[in-house]
Write a structure and sequence with these properties.
Blueprint (H helix, E strand, L loop, with lengths): L4 H16 L8 H11 L5 E5 L1 H16 L4 E3 L2 H4 L12 E5 L6 H4 L2 H7 L3 E5 L5 H5 L2 E4 L15 H20 L4 H7 L4 H7 L2 H4 L7 E3 L4 H11 L3 E6 L2 E7 H10 L8 H4 L6 E2 L5 H11 L3 E5 L5 E6 L2 H4 L5
Parallel strand pairs: 1-2, 1-3, 3-4, 4-5, 6-7, 9-10
Antiparallel strand pairs: 7-8, 10-11
């Protein structure tokens, strides 16, 4: 009989969940000590690990760097061929070895001692050579790996990732790391673009659909059609008086005995929602979603209409920075 692949996959995931279930209990004084060491560091946090631990180490270093803790990864093998010069005496070193006995990691310890670099160990074996040497020890031990033979790093690598995320999250909180900071480090990503982009960067500003308060129903329809925004800005001279949307037109048709007698002031919403040109795009987007509306009228500091922002612009018009 072939194995039940669905059952095996679910079993693997459950084993990893079970392994993570004990991780919270391992956040103790050693974790606090590691945080204090990193906060007191005048240099960078250097992450090192071999094999799967090295792959996880690269991820941890990237997460730390992107959340406000200067960090980078150095491969232990390359370190012995010149890359040790990348580690300065004022750096803190995070060494990852589940066994605590990885040869390439243990061989680094005399250099760290010579330079007096504080060492944080992330290991599953306490005691071990690495844990005995380290200034702080983060326990990532698991009862068993998720693979059938209890050999391939699976649950242990997941636990290591989670411990690294805990470090990064706590440090970001202590540093007062804000969404704007994250955006500066991620200008090429969609989240970064949203957080950095201002309303004026994406709003419609050309050929805006205007009409006056006495505009007839037919004039309003023509204005909305030409503007292609599904709305018309109703003006009192050069000031915004209201807003008419496609929905307003439909409701007016349903409620009027003769729509030909209606003018803009009879149909318009008198208090349209607005935004400022220098407002963050993400804030304007959040407001539109909360209010369940599709558009914001953009007004400058003198209350003059300068554009229209629409929720449809979110996916297509946010520029790559």
């Amino acid at each position: 009989m072939p194995p039940n692949v669905i059952h095996l996959a679910r079993k693997t995931i459950k084993l990893q969940i079970d392994a993570l279930g004990t991780m919270a209990e391992k956040i103790n004084r050693e974790f606090r000590k590691a945080i204090d060491i990193i906060q007191g560091c005048r240099g960078r946090l250097v992450v090192m690990g071999m094999g799967k631990s090295g792959i996880i180490g690269r991820k941890i270093a990237a997460t730390l760097a992107s959340t406000g803790t200067p960090s980078f990864f150095v491969h232990p093998g390359e370190a012995f061929h010149g890359d040790l010069g990348m580690i300065h005496p004022d750096d803190v070193v995070l060494l990852i070895s589940y066994s605590g006995e990885t040869e390439e990691i243990i061989r680094l310890l005399p250099f760290m001692e010579y330079q007096r670099n504080p060492v944080i160990a992330m290991t599953g074996k306490i005691p071990s050579t690495l844990s005995r040497y380290a200034d702080a020890v983060l326990d990532v031990s698991v009862e068993r790996e998720a693979c059938k033979n209890n050999l391939a790093p699976t649950s242990s690598t997941t636990a290591t990732v989670v411990m690294g995320d805990a470090l990064a999250s706590v440090l970001a909180e202590l540093r007062g790391f804000q969404p704007e900071d994250f955006a500066r480090f991620h200008p090429g990503g969609s989240l970064g673009r949203r957080l950095l982009t201002r309303v004026c960067d994406v709003m419609h500003r050309e050929n805006l659909p205007f009409c006056q308060q006495d505009a007839s129903f037919i004039e309003i329809v023509h204005t909305i059609t030409r503007g292609r925004l599904g709305l018309s800005l109703v003006m009192d001279g050069d000031r915004l008086a209201g807003l008419i949307t496609d929905g307003d037109l439909r409701r007016a048709l349903e409620g009027a005995q003769d729509h030909r007698l209606l003018c803009a002031r009879d149909i318009m919403s008198r208090n349209p929602k607005t935004a400022r040109p220098d407002e963050r795009f993400a804030e304007a987007e959040s407001r539109m979603r909360a209010l369940k509306i599709n558009s914001l009228v953009v007004l400058d500091d003198r209350e003059r209409v300068t554009g229209v922002l629409q929720i449809y612009d979110i996916a297509s018009d946010v520029p790559s920075l």
